[in-house]
C-alpha cells in the first residue's frame, strides 16, 4: 500500500493537473492551482483507498469524498472522468452516459454544464454535497460520518455489515480559518468519529497572499486538543507517505483523523507561489506550455488523456469495490423485511406507510399552549412512527421542546450511536451543516434554536435549499413575545430573511392544530427544506367548530373566519392569528363584516392556483390589514400600497409581553382602528 509512484501513477496525476489547467484556461475563469497541487493526494486516495464503485455511484455503503475546497472543483471533475463513473439521473436510473465526459470538462463553468464553478449536488453524479462556501463541506462530512454510525447500529445484523463506510474530506487553509470548521471538528472529536478523515492542504496561500498575514496557529495542536489523531505528510508528491498516512487512518480507532499535507499551489508551474493559480485565475498560454514541459507533457496538447491514464483509476476502483459490493448485496438480502423496507424508503425519500395515523389532536382552549410545546408533542408523535427522524438543538431543547422523550429514543453519543437525540452544543452554524450531511445520508434530520439565532445558520439553510434537502429547521421564541430578554433575543427581520430564500418553506402556525398540519407538510417534503417558526408564549387553541378547519394551513393561507363579502380583510401569521380573530369579533360586534386570513406560509400559498388565491384574497377588496410581530418588508404583495401593516418597524424592548404589545400596537383596539381606517379609505 505504501509503494512509491509508478510511471502510470505519474501519468494519471499529470493528467489531472493538465485537465485542470486546460479547463480553466478555456473557460477563462476558475482555480487551477489547488487542483494541480492536490492531484497526487486525490489520485492516491481514489486509486489506493477509496471504496467507490464506478458503476454503482449510489451504492449506500460507498466511501464519501467531500471536496470542501469547492473552488478546486476541477480536481473532482477530473477524478470522476478518469474513474469512469456512470451517470445516474434524477430518478435513480443509469443513463448509460459518463458522469463527466471529456466534453463536459471542456464546458467547465459554462451554462447548463455538469461542471459548474463549484460542485453542485444533484447536478453532477459523484458530487456528494454542494461546496464552495468554505467550511460547509467539512461540517457536512461530520454529518455523513454521524449518519454512518447511526445506520450501522440500525442495519448491521448477525455479523453482516450493511454500513461501514468512511468519509474523506479535502480541506484547505480557508476551511481552517472559518469558524464552522472549528465547531464541526470539536463535535467530531467529542463523538470520537473514527470513520472521518480530513486531509488538510497546507499550501500557505490565500487570495491576499501568504497565510502568515492572518493565520499563525499550530493546526495540529488545535486538532489534538479537539481529540483528533493527527498525521503530517511533508510533501504532497510523496505517494508512499500519503499512502502510509491513509493506511494509518484506516487502522486508527477512537477518534477522527487529520492528515496535514504540505503542498505547493500550482505545482509544476515555473512561478509556483507567484502564479495567478494562487488567486483563482487562468495560468495563461505561455505558463501552461512551460508547466507542461516541466511535467514532460506535450506542450501543445490540450485536454490530453493518455491511454494508460484512461483506464488505470477506473480499474483500481472497480477491482477493489466489486467484491465489496457483492458482499454488501448479500448482507442486504439478509435483512429482515422491516429493515429492508426501511432502507428502501429512506433511499427513496419516502415516509413509512402509516406515518400519520397516530397523532394528537388539540381541543379548543382559550388559554392555549405555546406552539413550541404543541410542536414538541407533534414531533414526538411523528418520530415514533418515523424511525429515521432524528435531531436536536444547539443546547436549547428544554426551551425549544424538541427533545424526543419516548422510550427508546436514546441519546446519540460516543458510547451509543443508536440514539436519536442529537446534542449539538452551542454550535448553531455547524448544527445546520451537520444536519445537511445527515440528510445527504438518507436520514430525516431536524435542528432547533431560537429564531433570532437563525442569523448563525443562514449559510447551511441556504445550502439546504440549493441542494433541495428536506431538513426541518425548528425556530422557537419567534417574536417580541420573548419579552424581558429584550432586543438581542427578539427577532424582527428574520422572517423576511427566511422568506427571501428560494426553495425554502417558512411555516409559522397560529395555534396547536395548525402546528400539527404544518409538521405534516414539512415531513412530506422530499426536495424542500422547511423552517418551523414557533412561539414561546401560549397561543389560544381556536374552536374549529366556530372557525375553519386547520387543514387549510397546508395551502399556505386560508379563510379562517368571516363574511363572504367582507368590508376588510385581516391577515395574520403565528401568534398574531388569535389577535386578528379577537379584532374580527370586535368588528363583528360593531356590525362590520370582516374576514380573517391565517397565512402561515407565503411559499405554500404561492404554490396554489390563481383561483384559490383570489378566493382567499379577492383582488377587488383593497381594505386590508396585516398583523405580524416582525418587520414589514414584503407584505405589500398582500396588502398593497394602501394596506395597513401592524408590524415591527424597530427592534423590540425588554419588558413583559403585555407591555410590549401595547407599546408596539399589537392590541385589539389598534387593529380594529386600522381596519376601520382601511374601510374608510376603500370607500372614498
Write the layout of secondary structure elements.
Layout: H1 7-27, H2 33-48, E1 64-67, H3 73-83, E2 86-88, E3 94-98, H4 102-106, H5 136-155, E4 167-172, H6 173-177, H7 179-191, E5 196-202, E6 205-206, E7 209-210, H8 219-226, E8 229-233, H9 239-251, E9 257-262, H10 285-295, H11 307-333, H12 337-348, E10 365-370, H13 371-385, E11 389-393, H14 397-400, E12 421-423, H15 428-439, E13 444-450, H16 458-467, E14 472-476, H17 494-499, E15 505-507, H18 512-524, E16 530-533, E17 538-541, E18 558-562, E19 568-572, H19 577-589, E20 594-598, H20 602-606, H21 610-616, E21 624-627, H22 636-639, E22 644-646, H23 657-664, H24 668-682
Parallel strand pairs: 1-4, 4-5, 5-9, 8-9, 11-12, 11-13, 13-14, 14-16, 15-16, 19-20, 19-21, 21-22
Antiparallel strand pairs: 2-3, 6-7, 10-17, 18-20
Summarize it.
The chain has 24 helices and 22 strands.
Summarize the structure in words.
- With 684 residues, the chain is α/β, with parallel strands linked by helices.
- It has three domains: 7-327, Rossmann fold (3-Layer(aba) Sandwich), CATH 3.40.50.970; 365-540, 3-Layer(aba) Sandwich (Rossmann fold); 555-682, Rossmann fold.
- The protein is built from 24 helices and 22 strands.
- The strands form six sheets. A six-stranded parallel sheet has the order 12-11-13-14-16-15, sandwiched between helices. A five-stranded parallel sheet has the order 1-4-5-9-8, sandwiched between helices. Strands 18-20-19-21-22 form a five-stranded mixed sheet, with helices on one face.
- Strand 8 (229-233), helix 9 and strand 9 form a beta-alpha-beta unit.
- The longest helix has 27 residues, at 307-333.
- The chain is elongated and about 90 Å long.
- The N and C termini lie far apart (86 Å).
- The model has no long low-confidence stretch (mean pLDDT 95).
Amino acid at each position: 500500500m505504501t509503494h512509491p509512484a509508478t510511471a502510470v501513477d505519474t501519468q494519471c496525476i499529470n493528467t489531472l493537473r493538465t485537465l485542470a489547467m486546460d479547463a480553466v484556461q478555456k473557460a477563462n475563469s476558475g482555480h487551477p492551482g489547488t487542483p494541480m497541487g492536490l492531484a497526487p493526494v486525490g489520485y492516491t486516495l481514489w486509486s489506493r483507498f477509496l471504496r467507490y464503485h464506478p458503476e454503482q455511484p449510489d451504492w449506500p455503503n460507498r466511501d464519501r469524498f467531500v471536496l470542501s475546497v469547492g473552488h478546486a472543483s476541477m480536481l473532482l471533475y477530473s477524478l470522476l472522468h478518469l474513474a469512469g463513473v456512470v451517470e445516474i439521473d434524477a430518478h435513480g436510473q443509469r443513463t448509460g452516459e459518463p458522469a463527466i465526459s471529456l466534453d463536459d470538462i471542456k464546458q467547465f463553468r459554462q451554462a447548463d454544464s455538469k461542471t459548474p464553478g463549484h460542485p453542485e449536488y444533484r447536478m453532477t453524479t459523484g458530487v456528494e454535497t454542494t461546496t464552495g462556501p468554505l467550511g460547509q463541506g467539512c461540517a457536512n462530512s461530520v454529518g455523513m460520518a454521524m449518519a454512518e454510525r447511526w445506520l450501522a447500529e440500525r442495519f448491521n445484523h448477525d455479523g453482516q455489515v450493511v454500513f461501514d463506510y468512511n468519509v474523506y474530506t479535502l480541506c484547505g487553509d480557508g476551511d481552517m480559518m472559518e469558524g464552522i470548521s472549528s465547531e464541526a471538528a470539536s463535535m467530531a472529536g467529542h463523538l470520537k468519529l473514527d470513520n472521518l478523515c480530513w486531509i488538510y492542504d497546507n499550501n500557505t496561500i490565500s487570495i491576499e497572499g501568504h497565510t502568515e498575514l492572518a493565520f499563525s496557529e499550530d493546526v495540529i495542536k488545535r486538532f489534538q486538543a479537539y481529540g483528533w489523531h493527527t498525521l503530517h505528510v511533508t510533501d504532497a508528491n510523496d505517494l508512499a507517505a500519503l499512502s502510509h498516512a491513509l493506511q494509518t487512518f484506516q487502522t486508527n480507532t477512537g477518534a477522527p483523523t487529520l492528515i496535514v499535507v504540505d503542498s505547493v499551489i500550482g505545482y509544476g508551474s515555473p512561478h509556483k507561489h507567484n502564479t495567478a493559480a494562487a488567486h483563482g485565475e487562468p495560468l495563461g498560454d505561455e505558463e501552461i506550455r512551460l508547466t507542461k514541459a516541466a511535467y514532460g507533457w506535450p506542450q501543445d496538447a490540450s485536454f490530453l488523456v493518455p491511454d494508460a491514464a484512461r483506464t488505470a483509476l477506473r480499474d483500481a476502483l472497480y477491482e477493489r469495490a466489486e467484491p465489496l459490493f457483492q458482499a454488501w448485496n448479500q448482507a442486504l438480502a439478509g435483512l429482515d423485511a422491516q429493515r429492508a423496507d426501511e432502507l428502501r424508503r429512506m433511499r427513496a425519500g419516502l415516509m413509512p406507510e402509516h406515518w400519520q395515523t397516530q397523532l394528537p389532536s388539540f381541543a379548543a382552549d382559550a388559554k392555549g399552549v405555546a406552539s413550541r410545546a404543541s410542536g414538541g408533542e407533534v414531533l414526538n408523535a411523528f418520530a415514533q412512527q418515523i424511525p429515521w427522524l432524528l435531531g436536536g438543538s444547539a443546547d436549547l431543547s428544554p426551551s425549544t421542546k424538541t427533545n424526543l422523550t419516548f422510550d427508546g429514543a436514546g441519546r446519540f453519543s460516543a458510547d451509543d450511536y443508536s440514539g436519536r437525540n442529537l446534542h449539538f452544543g452551542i454550535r448553531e452554524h455547524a448544527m445546520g451543516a451537520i444536519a445537511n450531511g445527515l440528510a445527504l445520508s438518507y436520514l430525516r434530520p431536524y435542528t432547533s434554536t431560537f429564531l433570532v439565532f437563525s442569523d448563525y445558520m443562514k449559510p447551511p439553510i441556504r445550502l439546504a435549499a440549493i441542494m433541495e434537502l428536506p431538513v426541518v429547521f425548528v425556530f422557537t421564541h419567534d417574536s417580541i413575545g420573548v419579552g424581558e430578554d429584550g432586543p438581542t433575543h427578539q427577532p424582527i427581520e428574520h422572517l423576511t430573511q427566511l422568506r427571501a430564500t428560494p426553495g425554502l418553506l417558512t411555516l409559522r402556525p397560529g395555534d396547536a392544530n395548525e402546528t400539527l398540519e404544518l409538521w405534516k407538510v414539512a415531513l412530506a417534503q422530499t426536495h424542500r427544506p422547511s423552517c418551523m417558526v414557533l412561539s414561546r408564549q401560549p397561543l389560544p387553541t381556536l374552536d374549529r367548530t366556530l372557525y375553519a378547519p386547520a387543514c387549510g394551513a397546508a395551502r399556505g393561507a386560508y379563510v379562517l373566519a368571516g363574511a363572504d363579502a367582507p368590508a376588510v380583510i385581516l391577515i395574520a401569521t403565528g401568534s398574531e392569528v388569535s389577535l386578528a380573530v379577537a379584532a374580527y369579533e370586535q368588528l363583528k360586534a360593531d356590525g362590520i363584516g370582516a374576514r380573517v386570513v391565517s397565512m402561515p406560509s407565503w411559499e405554500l400559498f404561492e404554490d396554489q392556483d390563481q383561483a384559490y388565491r383570489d378566493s382567499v384574497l379577492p383582488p377587488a377588496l383593497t381594505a386590508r390589514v396585516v398583523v405580524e410581530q416582525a418587520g414589514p418588508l414584503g407584505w405589500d404583495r398582500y396588502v398593497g400600497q394602501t394596506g395597513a401593516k401592524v408590524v415591527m418597524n424597530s427592534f423590540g424592548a425588554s419588558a413583559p409581553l403585555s407591555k410590549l404589545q401595547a407599546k408596539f400596537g399589537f392590541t385589539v383596539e389598534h387593529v380594529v382602528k386600522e381596519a376601520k381606517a382601511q374601510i374608510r379609505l376603500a370607500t372614498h
